[in-house]
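User: I've been trying to design a sequence by hand for this structure and keep getting stuck. Would you show me what you'd pick, starting by listing the structure so we're on the same page?

Assistant: Good idea, let's start from the same input. This is the structure you sent:
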């Protein structure tokens, strides 16, 4: 059961956020980025970011609908006493992010196979070896202090602090998180982060030396991605069109 919260001036369109976030869950399941009934996404509704939508505890991503999403308050610890409380790690991570990281209106936390494989390495760096990996050159946070399943407040606070001004976070021994102003941008960042990780894993598997771009070229390529910023929104819109055709109940 969702708790009604009055909408204030400056708040986001909750109905549209619900639809977009539900779409992201469905698309993540289709891409095999999810892990059982774990992992979690959130999107801020209030202007200050503290009231946010999050997935209900242990609901499979492939079944989530817009109306299923919980509306919670990052400043209200009694949230975890609710009958419909979110997953403890979802609360730990996302409540901290929405309190501490203003630019993180949307946060997607996953354990996708290739990015998580990189996260298991002593050095999980994404080297600029093609234009997708170069997108993240000097633009990804590195959380190298895994403290177990993130169900404790301190773990969430550290994760939020490590994000800094980045839009992506590599979490050693854990997984990855992307954050953005919109669901479309966070989804596109996650898509390309997993693609970049896949490219790294494939390159490692050849056993051959990497042809790593020099810093100047890698930075130039990363900046060039901003020329194609509109493609991030088009990408998500096109993916939603597929859902509208094949499983439109996500928007219910």
């Amino acid at each position: 059961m969702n708790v009604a919260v009055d909408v204030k001036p400056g708040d986001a369109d909750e109905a549209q956020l619900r639809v977009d976030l539900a779409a992201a869950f469905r698309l993540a399941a289709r891409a095999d980025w999810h892990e059982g009934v774990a992992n979690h996404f959130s999107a801020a509704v209030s202007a200050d970011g503290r009231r946010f939508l999050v997935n209900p505890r242990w609901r499979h991503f492939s079944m989530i609908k817009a109306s299923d999403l919980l509306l919670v308050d990052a400043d209200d610890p009694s949230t975890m006493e609710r009958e419909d409380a979110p997953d403890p790690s979802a609360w730990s991570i996302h409540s901290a992010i929405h309190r501490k990281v203003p630019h993180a209106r949307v946060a997607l936390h996953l354990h996708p196979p290739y990015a998580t494989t990189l996260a298991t390495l002593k050095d999980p760096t994404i080297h600029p070896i093609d234009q997708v990996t170069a997108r993240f050159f000097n633009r990804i946070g590195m959380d190298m202090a895994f403290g177990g399943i993130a169900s404790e407040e301190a773990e969430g606070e550290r994760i939020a602090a490590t994000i800094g001004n980045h839009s992506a976070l590599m979490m050693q021994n854990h997984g990855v998180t992307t954050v953005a102003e919109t669901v479309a941008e966070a989804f596109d960042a996650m898509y390309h982060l997993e693609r970049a990780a896949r490219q790294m894993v494939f390159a490692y598997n050849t056993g051959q030396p990497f042809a790593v771009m020099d810093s100047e070229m890698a930075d130039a390529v990363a900046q060039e991605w901003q020329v194609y910023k509109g493609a991030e929104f088009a990408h998500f819109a096109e993916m939603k069109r597929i859902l509208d055709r094949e499983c439109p109940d996500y928007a219910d």
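That's my pick for every position. To get oriented when you compare it with your attempt: The longest strand covers residues 175-180. Confidence is low (pLDDT under 50) at residues 1-7.
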